[in-house]
Amino acid sequence: MRRILTILLPIAVALMVGVPAAAQDDEPLSPEAVVAKLQAVFFTLLTAPDKDDAKATLRQLMATQEDKEPGREWERGIGIGILLYGMLLALPPGEAGEIDGDTAIVKLEPETIEFVLVQQDGQWKVDMAATYDRMPEKLRETFQPMAQRSSEKVRQANCLSNLKQLTLGAMMYAQHHDEKLPDADKWMDQLLPYLKNEAIYRCPAALDLEYGYAMNSALSGMAIEDITSPAWTVIFFDSDVGTRNAAGGSDAVCDPPRHNGGNNYAYADGHCRLEWNVPNFDPKAEAEQHGGADLVVELTDDSFEAEVLKAEGWVLVDFGTDECDPCRWLKPIFHQMAREYEGRVKFASVDVAKCSEVPEDYGIGPIPTVILFRDGKQVDKQVGFGGEDGFRAWVRGHVKE
Questions:
Q1: Which of 18, 21, 74, 102 has the most C-beta neighbours closer than 10 Å?
Q2: pLDDT tens, 23-71?
Q3: Among 106, 135, 164, which residue terminates a domain?
Q4: 161 and 130 inside one domain
Q5: Which of 159, 203, 254, 327 is catalytic?
Q6: Where are the alpha helices (DSSP H) in 89-186?
């Protein structure tokens, strides 16, 4: 059971992210009808996950406190796990055995799962945290690690969103100050008129700190055009300094790392990502001086056959240009992965502005386009860049550990 839940729970949680609540039913449902509907809708979601109405209805029937209390995203993960458990055992809900004011208990038999329901706005909803508390201890132990992992993923994504807003605020600030970045000793104060939200300065995974981020002090008041490699140079990052207007270099980075062994970083070109190694803080450093840049083979029309078509094993080829924004967002991730996959996958790139024959041969249109080869044969192609997580998952799906 633990193995099955471990496989299915992340899939189910992913289906739930970012779905708005649905409109409530005209007629209130009884507690047992809510549980039955919850199971039916969840089954629909697992078998036809593109059903947006099912996702919204599922969220409507679940009562959690995550919107009111930061750090409680685990409740939804627990709820998904409980539903999976009930669906795998095909357990029908019984009648509501206990109703006390705004609280009701609905049991699944013959296994004992007791759904706790509460009334919100005249509707019965399943209280996932209370339901979890009433489960047998061994079953709770099965769900808790999975829920914690899903909760951490949400916090890491929210943290990344904060850093993206900080970077956007810095770019807006620069537009009004001769293209110069804020001063490191007062960057929070200088960005606040553009952000208008103090909460952005706090990392959801570090609620014990008053402030969760710091600015790269080497960029203090610096003109953006003077940064040698903006796509490789950190501007804001996860920090455990915790003070207002915190600034510094790699010594101010969270140690131990904040998010599952890594930290979030924002770069001077505007993109943000999770890193497992401390990246570049020197605004004058060339990209080639760090992060696997020397491991990516620059291809030409003449070298493509020898480097790719006659190569043994996996070869990942990125088609793009330096003038394309999505290409620039992908580039540091591509180079970092070249280091991570060293010895297993050759990473190569084709500048479509300098090469014509190879891009034409492979029908390259929108860029970036990444093609995966094995033993000289094309295996798969990905057009565009939808984010680091999706790109990494695509590569992992082919190149097994």
A1: 74
A2: 444 577 888 888 888 777 777 766 665 566 776 777 778 776 544 444 4
A3: 135
A4: no
A5: 327
A6: 128-133, 137-175
